[in-house]
């Protein structure tokens, strides 16, 4: 059996996907070629690209009003690419409204400040990012260029459990670590982006879902390759796309369809995260500090009451096949990422280990 | 036996590399993890990254005066990233000198024009890019920001067979399709860049070799993720790098070392390309139009005297296991790319097929 990999990303992939990738490595569907070796302009690769885009649209129910783009550079590049693409629109205020809920939205607003005027419409920084501010407290700018949120903060472990209403101002969301894990009404969003290495495959691919009317307004300084108009007009082939990463994403999507699609993943995410939060909340040995209404179903940071046991915890976990459970250096402690590829058995194994660890180390202390 | 894949990129990979990638797909060196699933901050991936960088430095003999950076976006993104990084230097003329030798240097100069003043120092456009202008005819700008060349034009099939002397002005070279195929004195270059999908693995990874004093001068508009200072200061981990593409690159480099390194690849490239050019030049059925002193050892475009046979040529070639031989749409005809992974047997098989095709279709015409 493979270990349970709780990495926040690059992250666990379904075993079926890896097996298929391994089997097809030297010869994809009797072409004699690895997908890595195919010209991006060849019919086999063009069919992979089209199928992956079609499957994403179907699984996510992306409306016809939105393009799906395959890009590079990860979410960090998007922090610049988004203002470069959205600030050239006529008649807007160059203000960008941010809801600051953690490390990732913080990075996004730092970068956006190079291109426009950042307004922090709401922030939970005073609360150590342990909650998502409710919308009635946001101070939005009328006619802002856009409103940016990070719908799931991978590091801080909070998540939006409501869809903000930004009226006619485009809502932009970094969904890197929750994409494909829950049903989203994309008609409410101007731009959604996600790097692939959480729920969609390997690092080096970024999926961007953008409303058509927001395409074609890039600032002159925007590199051509990151101008959404070029990407959209060329079906994500303005330049050579990350072909193998798109193929792996395609395999993940096929697997996801076999599992029952996004609705099934949403149920599973609720089940997995509830199991873990309930266990943590019922223990005085472990602790999660995020407000109950803002907890992430994807990334569960937690702390041992006795932090001197951290190293023993990760070492003993590894021996039980529970890998990459250490928390992000910005937060400390532990973090369990429960992406789509993590089966509920993995969460049960984690909880069983946490129980045993707690029992063993309580006894140690009592001696 | 695998087919011979003459694609210009993404391109043929060594069978040993693909076999190893396939075998390690579910479990890299008893970690229990696929390389795709490893946190980029985990010790196993950090060791892969370091080894790949060290092997590149050793194979290419990159001097200590230069950084090796792993980036994303391909050569097309670099067309913007380079001026964004080099035009902020104090005391320079914002002129950028270009030597225009084909489609790729053309793309580069179009993009650079968004950030600086482009001067075409020399061009072979009047000669349909069938040669590389000799340096004595170049009109360089004193104190230019940099001089840009494309040392091997993948589409037009020409290659620099001399190292330009640009004095104190940094020389920038797009070596995407010749990297690792010949010995280069990197001390003569300010910046060298190459996408990985020709000679180094899969699409989605760009290798940049940059002289240390050229780092740290980015324009304010440069996205942080593409600012060489951020990339260099963080050992190519400013953001999540394309981890799997770096791993594949590492496997290619290990294979290359087993083959005898860059000097051996240079010998092989001379042998392979000479065989093919000699055959073409000795035939009245096939034609290559590039000037003898400017011919590429990597990409050999050629034409059939009777272009109505093009489709028959590619179809019959495919039946013989000779794949992706069709020319680029901008040039037409055929193109054989002879990257490092192409064995000399592949070139012999291509020539044997071309001879047979010529014989069969001459007979057709005579009937």
From TrEMBL, chains A, B:
<comment type="function">
    <text>Catalyzes the reversible conversion of 3-phosphohydroxypyruvate to phosphoserine and of 3-hydroxy-2-oxo-4-phosphonooxybutanoate to phosphohydroxythreonine.</text>
</comment>
<dbReference type="GO" id="GO:0030170">
    <property type="term" value="F:pyridoxal phosphate binding"/>
</dbReference>
<dbReference type="Pfam" id="PF00266">
    <property type="entry name" value="Aminotran_5"/>
</dbReference>
<keyword id="KW-0664">Pyridoxine biosynthesis</keyword>
<keyword id="KW-0808">Transferase</keyword>
<keyword id="KW-0963">Cytoplasm</keyword>
<feature type="binding site">
    <location>
        <position position="174"/>
    </location>
    <ligand>
        <name>pyridoxal 5'-phosphate</name>
    </ligand>
</feature>
<feature type="binding site">
    <location>
        <position position="104"/>
    </location>
    <ligand>
        <name>pyridoxal 5'-phosphate</name>
    </ligand>
</feature>
<keyword id="KW-0032">Aminotransferase</keyword>
<keyword id="KW-0718">Serine biosynthesis</keyword>
<dbReference type="GO" id="GO:0005737">
    <property type="term" value="C:cytoplasm"/>
</dbReference>
<comment type="pathway">
    <text>Amino-acid biosynthesis; L-serine biosynthesis; L-serine from 3-phospho-D-glycerate: step 2/3.</text>
</comment>
<feature type="modified residue" description="N6-(pyridoxal phosphate)lysine">
    <location>
        <position position="198"/>
    </location>
</feature>
<dbReference type="GO" id="GO:0004648">
    <property type="term" value="F:O-phospho-L-serine:2-oxoglutarate aminotransferase activity"/>
</dbReference>
<feature type="binding site">
    <location>
        <position position="197"/>
    </location>
    <ligand>
        <name>pyridoxal 5'-phosphate</name>
    </ligand>
</feature>
<feature type="binding site">
    <location>
        <begin position="239"/>
        <end position="240"/>
    </location>
    <ligand>
        <name>pyridoxal 5'-phosphate</name>
    </ligand>
</feature>
<dbReference type="GO" id="GO:0006564">
    <property type="term" value="P:L-serine biosynthetic process"/>
</dbReference>
<feature type="binding site">
    <location>
        <position position="154"/>
    </location>
    <ligand>
        <name>pyridoxal 5'-phosphate</name>
    </ligand>
</feature>
<feature type="binding site">
    <location>
        <position position="41"/>
    </location>
    <ligand>
        <name>L-glutamate</name>
    </ligand>
</feature>
<keyword id="KW-0028">Amino-acid biosynthesis</keyword>
<dbReference type="InterPro" id="IPR022278">
    <property type="entry name" value="Pser_aminoTfrase"/>
</dbReference>
<comment type="similarity">
    <text>Belongs to the class-V pyridoxal-phosphate-dependent aminotransferase family. SerC subfamily.</text>
</comment>
<comment type="pathway">
    <text>Cofactor biosynthesis; pyridoxine 5'-phosphate biosynthesis; pyridoxine 5'-phosphate from D-erythrose 4-phosphate: step 3/5.</text>
</comment>
<dbReference type="InterPro" id="IPR020578">
    <property type="entry name" value="Aminotrans_V_PyrdxlP_BS"/>
</dbReference>
<dbReference type="InterPro" id="IPR015424">
    <property type="entry name" value="PyrdxlP-dep_Trfase"/>
</dbReference>
<dbReference type="InterPro" id="IPR000192">
    <property type="entry name" value="Aminotrans_V_dom"/>
</dbReference>
<feature type="domain" description="Aminotransferase class V">
    <location>
        <begin position="4"/>
        <end position="350"/>
    </location>
</feature>
<feature type="binding site">
    <location>
        <begin position="75"/>
        <end position="76"/>
    </location>
    <ligand>
        <name>pyridoxal 5'-phosphate</name>
    </ligand>
</feature>
<dbReference type="InterPro" id="IPR015421">
    <property type="entry name" value="PyrdxlP-dep_Trfase_major"/>
</dbReference>
<dbReference type="GO" id="GO:0008615">
    <property type="term" value="P:pyridoxine biosynthetic process"/>
</dbReference>
<keyword id="KW-0663">Pyridoxal phosphate</keyword>
<protein>
    <recommendedName>
        <fullName>Phosphoserine aminotransferase</fullName>
        <ecNumber>2.6.1.52</ecNumber>
    </recommendedName>
</protein>
<dbReference type="InterPro" id="IPR015422">
    <property type="entry name" value="PyrdxlP-dep_Trfase_small"/>
</dbReference>
<comment type="subunit">
    <text>Homodimer.</text>
</comment>
């Amino acid at each position: 059996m493979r270990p349970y990999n709780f990495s926040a990303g690059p992250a666990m992939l379904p075993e079926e996907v890896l097996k298929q990738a391994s089997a097809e490595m030297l010869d994809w569907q009797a072409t004699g070629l690895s997908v890595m070796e195919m010209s991006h302009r060849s019919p086999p690769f063009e069919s992979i690209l089209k199928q992956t885009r079609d499957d994403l649209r179907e699984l996510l129910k992306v409306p016809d009003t939105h393009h799906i783009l395959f890009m590079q550079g990860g979410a960090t590049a998007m922090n610049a690419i988004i203002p470069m693409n959205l600030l050239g629109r006529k008649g807007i205020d160059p203000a960008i409204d941010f809801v600051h809920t953690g490390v990732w939205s913080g990075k996004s607003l730092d970068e956006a400040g190079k291109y426009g005027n950042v307004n922090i419409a709401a922030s939970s920084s005073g609360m150590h990012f342990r909650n998502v501010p409710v919308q009635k407290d946001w101070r939005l700018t009328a006619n802002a260029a856009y409103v940016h949120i990070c719908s799931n903060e991978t590091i801080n472990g909070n998540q939006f459990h409501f869809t903000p209403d930004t009226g006619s101002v485009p809502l932009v969301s970094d969904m890197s670590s929750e994409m494909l894990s829950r049903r989203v009404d994309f008609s409410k969003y101007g731009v959604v982006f996600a790097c692939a290495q959480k729920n969609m495959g390997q690092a080096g691919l970024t999926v961007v879902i953008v409303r058509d009317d927001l395409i074609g307004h890039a600032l002159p300084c925007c590199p051509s390759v990151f101008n959404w108009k070029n990407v959209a007009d060329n079906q994500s082939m303005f330049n050579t796309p990350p072909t193998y990463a798109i193929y792996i994403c395609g395999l993940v999507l096929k697997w996801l369809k076999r599992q029952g699609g996004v609705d099934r993943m949403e149920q599973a995410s609720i089940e997995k995260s509830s199991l873990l939060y309930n266990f943590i909340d019922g223990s005085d040995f472990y602790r999660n500090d995020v407000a109950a209404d803002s907890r992430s179903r994807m990334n569960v940071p937690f702390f041992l009451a006795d932090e001197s046991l951290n190293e023993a915890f990760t070492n003993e976990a590894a021996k039980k096949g529970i890998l990459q459970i250490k928390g992000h250096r910005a937060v400390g402690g532990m973090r369990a990422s429960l992406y789509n590829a993590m089966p509920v058995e993995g969460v049960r194994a984690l909880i069983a280990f946490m129980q045993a660890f707690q029992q063993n180390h309580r006894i140690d202390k009592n001696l």
